[in-house]
Amino acid sequence: MVAGKYVFRYFFHITISFVVVTTTFSSVLVTDSGGLTSSASAVVEIEAERDDPPKAHINECGSKEHSGSLTIRLPRTEVSLCGNGSLDDKGIVSYNWFRVDKLSEKLSVDLAGFILTLRNIQANERFGPYEFQLDVTDTKGQKDSARISIFVNKAENLPPG
User: Fold this and answer.
1) Is 24 exposed, middle or buried, given 0-12, 13-18 or 19+ CB atoms closer than 10 A?
2) What global pTM score does this model have?
3) How many CB atoms lie within 10 A of CB 83?
4) DSSP letters spanning 31-90
5) Dihedral sign for Cα atoms in the order 101, 105, 106, 109
6) Which residue has the higher pLDDT, 145 or 121?
7) Stretch among 16-25, 26-35, 45-54, 105-114 having the lowest mean pLDDT
8) CB atoms within 10 A of CB 40
9) Class of domain 59-153
10) Which pLDDT value is given to residue 93?
11) What would the mean pLDDT of 26-43 be, rounded to a whole number?
């Protein structure tokens, strides 16, 4: 640039919306003391904030394994399943548990948010496992599901000690 008087005119228009992706056009116009002008412009795109879907995980409360199956042995008759290992970048707003097996056996089920407690569990070796599904929903309404199969074996018949 040559020494002298310059006039800068900057035209800028921006619209910010948290719902809609926005395209913004910006330009600058430079005029020198001799009346010569030059301009430049740029297009700026404002994208919606990234929000990944959640990932549902079920494990036995107190364990960090997410295996999809759990084997227990009588005389144990109660188990608690946890869904708090489920992940989301913005937060999970709901945990919904469903029994999805076809067994007619009644179980006492206690739903409390991310914990599912099962009581009065009976051996199910002949009929197949108890099966439960956890559906998690994030702040944007995106969902994911996980399932777990619970195998309950009869108590071992040990000789007197």
Assistant:
1) middle
2) 0.69
3) 23
4) E-TTS-EEEEEEEEEEPPPP-PPPB---EETT-----SEEEEETT--EEEEE-TT-B-SS
5) negative
6) 145
7) 16-25
8) 9
9) mainly beta
10) 96
11) 84
pLDDT-derived band at 13 (thresholds 50, 70, 90) equals low
Two structure tokens written together for 70: 């759990």
Residues 139-156 as b/e (b if ≥16 CB within 10 A, e otherwise) read ebeeebebebbbebeeee
Ordered by start, the domain boundaries in the chain are 7-46, 59-153
DSSP, res 12: E
Residue located via tokens 């913004």 = 24
Joined together, the tokens standing for residue 114 give 């991310």
Residue 87 scores a pLDDT above 90: yes
